[in-house]
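hey so i finally got around to running both of the ones u sent me last week. sorry it took forever, my laptop kept dying halfway thru and i had to restart like 3 times lol. anyway pasting them below in the order u listed, first the sequence line then the structure token line for each. didnt double check formatting much so if smth looks off just lmk and ill redo it

first one:
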Amino acid sequence: MTEEEAARAAYRAFVREHHPDVGGDPDEFIAGLEKLRRQQDGPPWEDSPRFDAPVTFVVNPKGVVGRVRRWRDRRRRPPRVQ
């Protein structure tokens, strides 16, 4: 595990343990985040090459209507086993 991966793992572990949504103290959470960010000069994933690629969206031309039609067609098919 590289130093960057270890820093990211520590950051994520802190957030999982102290986040207010899971019962952590909001003030302690904010203070802890500030401390971690000062130590690391920002979030550990900020300079990661993992997020360099452009985001691509794939559009399904049939959308919801196509899914409903496929479901309906499958329901109306005769059984494959006789």
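and the second one:
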Amino acid sequence: SINLTSRIRKAPKLHVMDTGLCAYLLGWPNGETIEKSTMCGAFFESWVFAELYKSFSYAGLSPQFYYYRDNKKNEIDLLIPEGLTLHPIEIKMTASPKSDDIKAFRVLDKVLDKGGIGYHVGVGALICMVREPVTLQPNAFTVPAWSI
């Protein structure tokens, strides 16, 4: 986690970079088995994380991704810093996103205001199973998983 304030937990979040290998090691023979499992959302999140990480690496950038969770269990799957701007990213395996899916983005505004550390919130995204991008809030959009 990034140490923005003392409210942020330092518990790490683990992502598997090769979800195919992970499925094989679990004895899951195909994608249908993963879709029916309770781990489907975690597999999707790890896959998105891996694709974003590879995209940054292939572009010659050193990926610095952070995870946010506070003591009230507000959670943001990824924070991608760009200078003093933090871009919040939520990852959900849904084809019908709602603005409520990104409610934790608002918490980040409050944390950054109280922290007095100069960071501000940039454009956020909900990466999901939509076909086309949709505006959820003035500064947050859906991003189709196929486009990453």
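quick thing i noticed on the 2nd:
The helical segments are 19-25, 31-36, 40-58, 104-115.
anyway thats it, ttyl
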